[in-house]
């Protein structure tokens, strides 16, 4: 058994502040970690005597739980900043050609490595990840994540109506998904998500097969895109003319349940919000992507009226930053565009425990509570000259909320001094 302790300023939000969830903050805290799991947490003054022989590492900064990215595409890492198009044309012009290169396993291995390095540089220690249509694109990601002990949930993309070179069939899609589930179930910190790309790239036969697959594997997540962009919504309405709305297309094939994660949800009907709430299905909000592709702004007011389960995602490569801090800052700006005010503690919750709940891993990560895996990030409030000025000692009368908000608006990978995975340092900035 290995036991270590970490001393620093600890901050976490385990439950949605909107539902009364409290901010947990130890100005001079101690985190005791046994074999990668949090064994104790509290004020240093209260706890230190109980662990006299344990070596203590000082953490220089604000310590928060490792971020949980609730929606991101690893094969699109090299596609960030592709100019000129909204969703459907962007997919055709930039994304599908890039994903076709994943037919080559060595290419997938290389990108998986770059992607996971980028996650850790940004303090992200768990993620729900799109791969490509190729079965081995998931093997590449899972192999690399297993070696680094990063918590990754992913799955082969189902898309029998995709472009040339990126199509499976209802039968091969199902068989390959099942082979991956068999191969990877129960290994390390990995999980499987059944992943139809979106309604427009799967036939009715494949959507039906996806529903059957999900019914056979109740421990898997369902991960797809929903009501992201107006042109996409119009195309879905034209193809599925008898569906009540976009969500209903998925619902008819058995794809809407408590383990379903839908990215975006920018253009949701009141009916579909009620149905999401009724089933417990969640939305991964992706503000940088929504701005980049001109999709719109997530409606926090509507979501909260219905009590929707929410998390936060970067959606690389439509998203423009791997940083969940920056993404939280953009979520604030997207909310304000609709006259909603996203509190910085709620934004932190969205980026950690909220996303973890969406991914059904909140018992393991997201709040640095006793019994959880010790994934955490050390944030440097003086990472850039501007941040240093905004948070300088004269300003230290600034409240904790103001300090956290400054990190969300001005911070990014530069503010991540260190990332720890199960108590071990996995990234150190300098
Ligand atoms: N909808 C279907 N595929 C995609 C994708 O790769 N990115 C985004 N943002 N939306 C999608
Ligand atoms: Zn996406």
Question: What's the helix and strand layout?
Answer:
Layout: E1 3-13, E2 23-34, E3 37-43, H1 44-47, E4 56-65, E5 67-73, H2 87-100, H3 105-121, E6 124-130, H4 135-148, E7 151-155, E8 157-158, H5 170-184, E9 191-196, H6 204-216, E10 221-226, H7 230-239, H8 246-252, E11 260-264, H9 270-279, E12 282-285, H10 287-292, H11 300-306, E13 309-312, H12 324-337, H13 344-358, E14 376-379, H14 385-390, H15 400-410, E15 416-421, E16 424-428
Parallel strand pairs: 1-4, 5-6, 6-7, 7-9, 8-9, 9-10, 10-11, 11-12, 12-13
Antiparallel strand pairs: 1-2, 2-3, 4-14, 14-15, 15-16
Helix pairs in contact: 3-4, 4-5, 5-6, 12-13, 12-15
Bound molecules: guanine and zinc ion.
Describe this structure in words.
- This protein folds into two domains: 3-66 and 367-428, Urease, subunit C, domain 1 (Roll); 67-358, TIM Barrel (Alpha-Beta Barrel).
- It contains 15 helices and 16 strands.
- It has helices spanning 44-47, 87-100, 105-121, 135-148, 170-184, 204-216, 230-239, 246-252, 270-279, 287-292, 300-306, 324-337, 344-358, 385-390, 400-410; strands at 3-13, 23-34, 37-43, 56-65, 67-73, 124-130, 151-155, 157-158, 191-196, 221-226, 260-264, 282-285, 309-312, 376-379, 416-421, 424-428.
- Strand 11, helix 9 and strand 12 (282-285) form a beta-alpha-beta unit.
- Helix 4 runs parallel beside helix 5 and helix 12 (324-337) packs across helix 15.
- The longest helix has 17 residues, at 105-121.
- The chain is globular.
- The mean pLDDT is 97.
- Bound molecules: guanine (GUN) and zinc ion (ZN).
- Guanine (GUN) binds at residues 73, 87, 91, 95, 197-198, 225, 228, 289, 315, 318.
- Zinc ion binds at residues 71, 73, 225, 263, 315.
- This is Guanine deaminase.
- Its cofactor is Zn(2+).
- Its EC number is 3.5.4.3.
- Pathway: Purine metabolism; guanine degradation; xanthine from guanine: step 1/1.
């Amino acid at each position: 058994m290995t036991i270590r302790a970490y001393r620093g300023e600890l901050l976490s939000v385990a439950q949605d502040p909107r539902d009364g969830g409290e901010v947990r903050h130890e100005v001079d805290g101690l985190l005791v970690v046994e074999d990668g799991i949090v064994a104790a947490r509290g004020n240093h003054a209260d706890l230190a005597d109980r662990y006299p022989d344990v070596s203590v590492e000082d953490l220089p900064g604000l310590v928060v739980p490792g971020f949980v990215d609730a929606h991101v595409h690893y094969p699109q890492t090299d596609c960030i900043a592709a100019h000129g198009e909204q969703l459907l044309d962007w997919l055709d012009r930039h994304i599908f050609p890039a994903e076709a290169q994943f037919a080559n396993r060595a290419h997938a291995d290389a990108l998986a490595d770059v992607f996971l390095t980028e996650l850790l540089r940004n303090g992200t220690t768990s993620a729900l990840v799109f791969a490509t249509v190729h079965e081995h694109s998931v093997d590449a990601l899972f192999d690399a994540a297993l070696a680094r002990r990063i918590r990754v949930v992913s799955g082969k993309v189902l898309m029998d109506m995709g472009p040339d070179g990126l199509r499976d069939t209802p039968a091969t899609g199902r068989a390959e998904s099942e082979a991956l589930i068999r191969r990877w179930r129960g290994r390390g910190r990995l999980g499987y998500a059944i992943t139809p790309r979106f309604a427009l790239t799967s036939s009715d036969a494949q959507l039906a097969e996806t529903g059957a697959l999900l019914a056979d594997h109740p421990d898997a997540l369902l991960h797809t895109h929903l009501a992201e962009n107006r042109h996409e919504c119009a195309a879905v309405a034209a193809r599925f003319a008898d569906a009540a709305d976009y969500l209903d297309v998925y619902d008819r094939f058995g794809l809407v349940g408590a383990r379903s994660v839908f990215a975006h949800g920018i253009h949701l009907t009141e009916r579909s919000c009620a149905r999401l709430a009724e089933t417990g299905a969640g939305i991964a909000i992706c503000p940088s992507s929504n701005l980049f592709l001109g999709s719109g702004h997530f409606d926090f007011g509507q979501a909260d009226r219905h009590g929707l389960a929410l998390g936060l995602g970067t959606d690389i490569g439509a998203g423009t930053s791997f940083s969940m801090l920056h993404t939280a800052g953009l979520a604030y700006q997207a909310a304000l565009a609709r006259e909603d005010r996203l509190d910085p503690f709620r934004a932190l919750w969205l980026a950690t425990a909220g996303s973890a709940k969406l991914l059904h891993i909140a018992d393991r990560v997201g709040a640095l509570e006793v019994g959880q895996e010790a994934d955490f990030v050390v944030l440097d409030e003086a990472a850039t000259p501007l941040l240093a000025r905004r948070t300088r000692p004269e300003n230290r009368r600034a409240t904790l909320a103001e300090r956290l908000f400054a990190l969300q608006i001005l911070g990014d990978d530069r503010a991540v001094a260190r990332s720890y995975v199960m108590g071990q340092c996995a990234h150190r900035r300098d």
